[in-house]
Design goal:
- By secondary structure, the protein is α/β, with parallel strands linked by helices.
- It has helices spanning about 40-50, 90-100, 105-120, 135-150, 165-185, 195-200, 220-225, 230-235, and strands at about 5-15, 15-25, 30-35, 55-60, 65, 75-80, 155-160, 185-190, 205-210, 210-215.
- Helix 2 packs across helix 3 (about 105-120), helix 2 (about 90-100) runs parallel beside helix 4 and helix 3 crosses helix 4 (about 135-150).
- The longest helix is centred in the C-terminal third of the chain and has 18 residues, at about 165-185.
- The radius of gyration is 18 Å and the shape is globular.
- The structure holds adenosine-5'-diphosphate (ADP) and magnesium ion.
- Adenosine-5'-diphosphate binds near residues 18, 39, 42, 43 and 44.
- One of its GO terms (cellular component) is ATP-binding cassette (ABC) transporter complex, substrate-binding subunit-containing.
Length: about 240
């Protein structure tokens, strides 16, 4: 069974349609990248999957269950944003444990999970700091850690590396790829960066103006782009 299925998904803001009938199937464990120019609807699509935005039409199913009317918190997903979205008044440790405390997870279980995740993301020495005392890369590690702690069915990333400098971006790409290998979860990763898409993805969806122009493996898109737009965007020789 597909992990995530989008059927005829549409989104309108007022009279403006920004997502125009998107169909996608993502299998368990896949690293799926949504790529496309600024304003093409990547974030809107991700927000509808997460439940932060409602759909104007179509069906979203997770593991076969229709989730259109399921609240964001109950979809079992974790989202990582470009802007980190950490709680500024809380320590790193509190940022990591916050969601779990709401779920009434026992204290010793929370402590063990935070320990594991801190080791995985090398943030042990940051646990008692506040977000303002962290670098951009450290903040994003914590934000990813917070997503991991929740043990989501699917990870959603919205341009998580855009605020980082080029060198750090390359390091973090590697870390996210390692995390994917280690956890094996499905990851949906939004970026406008072709290199990021080509190097990280199992599958790429190329979006333009609210439409998926092509969906497939990186090499498939590279060697057999369906049109000039995809070719240009992926950087294939055609
Ligand atoms: P991307 O993430 O690919 O840059 P977005 O999903 O943010 O694109 O935006 C897609 C389109 O929807 C853009 O034209 C944007 O202006 C519009 N849009 C996004 N959110 C809103 C909103 N809350 N109200 C009105 N228009 C919006
Ligand atoms: Mg966006």
């Amino acid at each position: 069974m597909a992990n995530l299925q989008l059927q005829d998904i549409e989104k309108a803001f007022g009279s403006v349609k920004v997502i125009k009938g998107v169909n996608l199937t993502v299998n368990h464990g896949e690293f799926c990248v949504f790529v496309g120019p600024s304003g093409c609807g990547k974030s809107t699509l991700l927000r509808m999957i997460s439940g932060l935005d409602s759909v104007s039409g179509g069906r979203i199913t997770i593991d076969g269950d229709l989730v259109n009317d399921v609240a964001a918190a109950d979809r079992g997903l974790s989202m990582v944003f470009q802007s980190y979205a950490l709680y500024p008044h809380m320590s790193v440790r509190q940022n990591l444990s916050f969601g779990l405390e709401n779920l009434n997870t026992p204290r010793d279980v929370i402590k063990k999970k935070i320990d594991e995740v801190a080791t995985m993301l090398q943030i042990h020495e940051l646990l008692d700091r506040k977000p303002k005392d962290l670098s951009g890369g450290q903040r994003q590690r914590v934000a990813i850690g917070r997503a991991v702690v929740r043990e989501p069915r699917i990870f959603l990333f919205d341009e998580p590396l855009s605020n980082l400098d080029a060198e750090l971006r390359v390091d973090m790409r590697g870390e996210i790829a390692q995390l994917h290998k280690r956890l094996g979860n499905t990851m949906i990763y939004v970026t406008h960066d072709q290199v990021e898409a080509m190097t990280m993805a199992d599958k790429i969806a190329v979006l333009r103006a609210g439409v998926v122009e092509q969906f497939g493996a990186p090499l498939e898109l590279y060697h057999s782009p369906v049109n000039q737009f995809v070719a240009g965007f992926i950087g294939s020789p055609k």
